Amino acid sequence: MHFADGTIPTDYLDYVRRKHLWILGGIVLLFLLLIVSISVGAVSIPPHEVFLSIVNGIIDRINAFLNPGTALSVSSTDRIVWNIRLPQALAAIVAGIGLSVAGVAMQSILRNPLGSPYTLGISNAGAFGAAVSVILLGAGEMHSTVADAVTLNNPYLTTMVAFVFCLLATGVILLISRIRGASPEVMVLAGVALSSLFTAGTMFLQYFADDTQLAAVVFWTFGDVGRANWQELGIMALITIAACLFFLANRWNYNAIDAGDETAKGLGVSVERVRDIGMVVAALVSAVIVSFLGVIGFVGLVCPHMVRRLIGDDQRYLIPGSCVMGGILLLASDTVARVIVAPYILPVAVLTAFLGAPVFIYLLLVGYRR
User: Fold this and answer.
1) Among residues 322, 271, 326, which one has the least CA distance to residue 96?
2) Domain containing 212: what range?
């Protein structure tokens, strides 16, 4: 926005500066929360030791990469930080970012405040795929110890089958939208119907499962960021970063679609193409996260609405703001889940559901005025 002489209005600069400050403040809060999250647990570690362990660990690994054969000096604190808590905390951040950016994209593409990977049935499709792999393909088993009650003897098979069913659900939604015309209402209703269908399919399989298989399915369904290792974290991070860059590159298209399909077409936006590709990318990042971590609901629904209340609807700031808020919300939920009933550790999906369900009901009863 410029005046005729090329200068920028002061009010607009203040408007943009406030949005930048909100996002930067969220990034700082996310970093501080990361340190706190790693420091708490069964073994308490002072925050400054966590920070030093992370910094020294990064330096040591860079030196080992540049000078092969250099041995890493690893203390007991480093083992806890690098082998257990840091991967879990980073997985929470990456999953929160991925689910939030998928949610904000779906809400903008569909022009529906209730759009998210969970409400459109993609997460339930992944749960059905996991049930298929455990019950029909034999990927789950039970141990008798309390500390390790349920394990999946072939977790990668479960992950792949869940991923395939997530993409299958997305393909069905897009196919239905093509048959009826790519309207937001058709996509949302198709997602709700598929969610019910996959939930029914999961219950059908569970009814005929034995105790071992049933326990394995329930265990997988509980979304838990603690089950991701460094390799899986790298895959999730790569897909999530690529999706974020894609959505940021299309931020102006989404701003145009927010004004209405006819307005967007008048501005030269290929609405159907942008909508279809955006849905596929959002479903892809959601499918990757769900297939690795299980079902984590409501993050993609809640975070975009929180950010809208703080910095508005402009996609230039809503997308990065939602990414930051998603990381904060899921990391905070995981931290609380690890300490609220210590020494037991709750799956993070329990807390996100407790937070998301009231917000979902609020949106249904009151509505969201954009």
Assistant:
1) 326
2) 20-366
Number of domains, the chain: 1
Q: For residue 276, what is the domain's CATH number?
A: 1.10.3470.10
Digit-by-digit pLDDT tens for the chain (370 residues) are: 554 445 556 677 878 888 989 999 999 999 999 999 999 877 888 988 899 888 888 888 888 777 776 666 677 788 888 888 999 999 999 999 999 999 999 888 888 777 888 888 888 898 898 888 888 887 655 454 444 545 566 667 878 888 888 888 888 887 887 776 656 777 778 888 888 999 999 999 888 888 778 877 887 788 888 888 888 899 999 999 999 999 999 999 998 888 887 888 888 888 888 888 898 898 889 888 888 888 888 888 888 988 888 888 889 999 999 999 999 999 999 998 888 877 777 888 888 888 777 776 776 676 544 4
Angle, in degrees to the nearest 10, between helices 184-207 and 211-221: 150
Indicate the pTM of the whole model.
0.87
Q: Could you tell me which of 319, 300, 313 has the C-alpha nearest to residue 359?
A: 300
- Residue 219 CA to residue 208 CA, distance in Å, equals 17
